[in-house]
Amino acid sequence: MTAATPAETGEEPRAAGPGAVLPGAQIPEGRGMGRVRLVQIYRIGSAVLGALLLATFVQAGMALYGNEQARDVLIERVDPATLEQFRLSTAVTGQDTAIRAYAEEGGREHVEQYRAAVRQEAASAARMRRLLAGVPGHEEVDRLLARATADSRAWRAGFADRVAAGPGGQGIDRGESRLASRLLVQARGDMTPLQTGITALHDRAAAKLNSRARTAQWSTFAALAMVVAAALLLALLFRRTVLTPVSTLTGRVRAVSEGDFGHRLDVPGPAEINELAVIIDAMRARIIEEWRTSEDKSRRLDEQTEELRRSNGELEQFAYVASHDLQEPLRKVASFCQMLERRYGDQLDERGRQYIAFAVDGAKRMQALINDLLSFSRVGRLSRPEDSVDLDEVVRQALDNLSTLREETGAEVDVAELPDVPGDRTQLVQLFQNLVGNAIKFRREGVPPRVTIDVRRTGDEWEFGCADNGIGIDPRYADRIFLIFQRLHSREEYTGTGIGLALCKKIVEYHGGRIWLAADEHAEPDTVTPGTTFRWTLPAQPSTGTEDGAGEGTGDPDD
């Protein structure tokens, strides 16, 4: 099993050749940035920028956290403690009012109001301690709160609790009233320092909150600025390491592609760009080398072509001169041999007359060969091309030249209506005469020759056909039969010089066409007789393209 060829698979054939790029070990090391690879640059840059961004965001996060903590201290702890201080002061005043009302008027509801105020004072004091626990500077407030609650307890122990334990409604004597007033003034006097202390604590918490807020604000601005700076640095790094070197390399490669092969491609940049420039520069050098080599080969080929053309011209001239000059001696040899036979034939024996016949036959065959060589050498040298040649007239002239042979063999020649083509009339007559003459000559024994000439339009050319019912040609000789002096049969079987088909090929190619053996066609398609079909093309007249186009692909001009 053989692998499919690119033509069978439809794939584009891959061209291969020696490498134009230096091996990696021989690529020269770059200078400056050219020593550093892009991956290293971006790895280091990413690490540095990542560390800066991380530090900035951590700092901003910590500032926001500190601001949140300061806000919680002020709003969730100091402010409620301040409110509880006012409740504490109100509870002390409420205790005094309730206990005096009970002492003057009696009534257990005043005692209950007194005891509720006592509980409110204790609850407010406990809440203040709980809220301010852990707040920086709370120790002074705790000390003032302890002194205020101690003086309040002293007032209750020295006056209020004893009145509440009594029957009530009996009034307060003067001495006891002065003691109670002194103790109450002392307890209320403690509220002012307590309020001052908690106010100072509130101011410090508010100042701290403002400071943390400014710090968080500036940290956020710094983080945003760092992000913008990082984006700008990345853009600058990308421009410096990729865009600028690639743009420069593209411009220089474009200059080379436009024909400036001397433009070097040394582009400063990272190692990858430097390596790419070196590789492309090596390809440029290879292209220059191949171009110079190709130019040198083309020049030598032109010189050899010119030499071959000159040599071929000399050979053709020699063949023409030799063929022309040899005819006269050959005619003289044949004529004198025939005269010798006529005058002295009765004096010669049978062998002598046979020798003379051999000499005359050889001279005539040599003369035929020379005539064919002369015709062969004239193609392309002594042509008289015409713009339009009527092929119907050409075929009639060729058939007239073969009239004797046609009458002797009883040949029938069917000719379709043929077009006009540009060309040499004499050579076209020779072409049809040779093909029809061969068709009649290579006939089958006992079968009258039948020759058919047809034509069809294929694009910008006419395709002619000459088919016969003769002995046929083995397809393996399809190329050999067009070589000069090539014969498929002995001279005893069929006469000829072996130049006829070579002359046809030369005439057709001189007119810009091609000729070939159509091995699968013959004159009688409904039979199994071998036969031979030759097909050849001739260019159509440009001026008749519109008219002739109507019959394109129909197979016959009559269509």
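Next protein, fold it too.
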Amino acid sequence: MTQPILLAQLRLPSSPIDMILGGTLPTKIVLVVLVLFSLVSVWIMWAKARQFRKVRRLGDEFISAMERAQRLEDAYKAILSLPDSPYGRVFRQGINFFSELRPGGLREGAQVQGLSAAQLEVLRLVLEKEEAEERDELARGLTWLAVVASVSPLLGLLGTVIGVMNAFLGITATGSTNIGAVAPGVAEALTTTVAGLFVAIPAVIAYNHFVSRLNLVSNELEGFSSEFIGTLAREGRV
């Protein structure tokens, strides 16, 4: 690398834009990757916020319908009129499995034999399987958000290390130890760290927020499954 080129790289930028546009190729590549990461994380945050807001609204409708129902068959009729939701799918899975074990057992006034201990345990496993599927569906995309949150600072640090190395190479080539020869290269190098943190911090906040929302929905589904089995026991179907 010739001295004029190194001197051009060490010129003092007048703005952050100049610093980015005048950066080295590794710095620009790191920044482009971070921009892509930022776009991906924003899209995931928008999609998950929309999904959890819809689940919350459907959950409120489901709980209101369940509170108005007096018996299990009333709740089943009420749930059929509601939009599809994780809560409704867990409920229908339990109802369908019970109906397979005791055909006609949900008809009004029907006298059915209660479930055995083994059948009750299988029903619990069926409900847990449906809960796990709903949890996996709601968690889709959060892994990529965690990847963006954890990898972005490392990419920024990588760009900084490469930039600092180039700055020191420039000092070696020019033979100048003046701070004016070091500052532009170091400042350019630090832009990738700033960009990495700028991408990572919102992703970390969003990831933790959505995980807490996911745990809330998961706990509600587990609580509902226990209540479903409790309702069967209260109505003499266990």
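About the second fold: The longest helix spans residues 179-234.
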